[in-house]
Amino acid sequence: MAVVDLDWPGCRNVRDVGGLPTADGGRVREGVLIRADSLQFLSPEGVEAVRRAGVGRILDLRGDGEVAAWPTPFTDDPLGVRQALQDPADPDHGQATIVAACTWMLDRRPELFAAAVKAIADAPDGAVVVHCHGGKDRTGMVVALALSVAGVPEEEIIADYFLTQERMAAWLAEQLADEPDASKHPEMMEFRDTRAESMVAILRHLDEKYGGPEPYLRHGGLTADDLDRLRKRLT
């Protein structure tokens, strides 16, 4: 894999997934899809770095409460587009593992995941930045769906997801150090880690229940034209 880490001061986990190979011998284009943690922490220098990167759309996957509590410099900017992956009426997922939580979200709101992927396909010229809070699970699922449509092999999608573990390790260590109740540490680690096995399990779920990522997105409402535009944009 050949993803490129980007230096956006204030972000801990931002990279261009351009360079990833596709099954037909091609590659994902550079400068079209960037994944990131929340841009709320960007310094003024980081904001300028985003603007210099030729970004055409910033896709914020967080819910209303998160955005209200932690707006980013682009929340009210014309570049910013919001597409939450849960409806405000949805209950808390109440799941004990990150895989169960992610598959619960996928099953409950396929139309919202499809809308997020469509927002990538339909974006203006320039890179699309996809982010949530940590840039791991919600971002990881949307990016995995988009890369799968582009023809990126599963092992490359899994490897890209796993990169986040290294990028966020220091932040996890800080959060664990700040929590004196050690009994809470296992749950914190469960929901903040990005084990490769988690993405493997998520992709297996999509295969077994829907026939794969692309049929899942069709189930959520994407058309053949939507999927074709996404492929042409990314490759």
Give the structural class.
alpha/beta
Instruction: Return the string of H and E elements.
Output: EEEHEHEHHEHHHHHH
**Helical fraction:** 40-55%
* Low-pLDDT sequence parts: none
Rounded Rg: 17 Å
Task: Quickly name the level 1 CATH class.
Answer: Alpha Beta
CATH topology: Protein-Tyrosine Phosphatase, Chain A
Distance between the termini: 15 Å
Label the CATH architecture: Alpha-Beta Complex
Order of strands, main sheet, comes to 1-2-3-6-4-5
Beta-strand fraction estimate: 5-15%
Tally of contiguous helical segments:
10
CATH superfamily: Protein tyrosine phosphatase superfamily
Mean pLDDT, rounded to whole units? 91
Structure keywords:
235 residues, alpha/beta, Protein-Tyrosine Phosphatase, Chain A, six-stranded mixed sheet, 6 strands, globular
Secondary-structure map:
Layout: E1 4-5, E2 15-16, E3 33-36, H1 44-52, E4 55-60, H2 64-69, E5 80-82, H3 98-108, H4 110-121, E6 127-131, H5 138-150, H6 154-178, H7 185-192, H8 196-210, H9 213-219, H10 224-234
Parallel strand pairs: 3-6, 4-5, 4-6
Antiparallel strand pairs: 1-2, 2-3
Structure description:
This protein is α/β, with parallel strands linked by helices. It contains 10 helices and 6 strands, in the order βββαβαβααβαααααα. α5 packs across α10 (224-234) and α6 crosses α8. It is globular, with a radius of gyration of 17 Å. The model has no long low-confidence stretch (mean pLDDT 91).
